[in-house]
Amino acid sequence: MSSLTFKKSVTNFYLLIFLITLSISSIVLDIKYSNSNYIRIYINDFIINPIQYLARTPSMFFSSFMVEKETIAELKEEIERLEKENMSMKINLQRLDVLESQVSRLRGIRQNLDNEIKNIKIAEITETNVIPNKKSIQINVGSNYDLIVGQTVMGVNGLLGQIVEVNMYTSKVLLITDSDSNVPAKIGRTGQQIIVKGGAEDNLLEVPFLPNDSDIKTGDLIITSGQANRFIPSLKIGRVKDVIKNDGERFIQAIIDPLEKVENISEAVIPSKIK
Asked: If you placed Cys at 255, which of 131, 161, 242, 265 could pair as Cys (CB 3.0 to 4.6 Å)?
């Protein structure tokens, strides 16, 4: 037994002896004196009751402490639950923002498509190659999405290119700005058939051989013609930026600024035509 425990035991023993003595004295006085009631009341009020209160105080304090401890634990659990709910709501809001963004993009794409478009697939651009005269992108869908070589690929604003290679989960797209790209097209204002070629400087397009009497102006919209079934018809390609005429030449040249810039987008769209 430790010294501290021994001292507490002695103190409790003396306190017990004291209380017993008081009780016996009270009984004796009650028998011997008729006015002992006042003495007993005095002893109860000023000695015994305070001692009893002090004896109960540790138990009351411990009980209050336990209740407070349980309350704190419950509050912590409630805080953790609310934090989890808050995190879940934030995640759901982020998902909603993504869905709203996708819907907005789809609406923009739909506005640029004609009624012959059956459906569209959206793909992520995972790789971009824009070395001089050789320009292509890789998208994260392939034969797993039933893509085939020759399909048209576009962005929100206009034509991007054409699928030239299909793997299981990826596809390669030749951009219309590549020097090997030739797109059957027409002038939207007049309907004149033209061929739009890639390979011009500054990621521009060109129509190199136009008859001198061609009705083409700066700002004219150029769209796909659908000739040879190489591209879906009526897709926007770009606008005429400049018309170059040289005296004595049989042909004129038009420079086209593409509406879709691959460096500005992270997704590509593969439309399907109604058969």
From this structure: 242
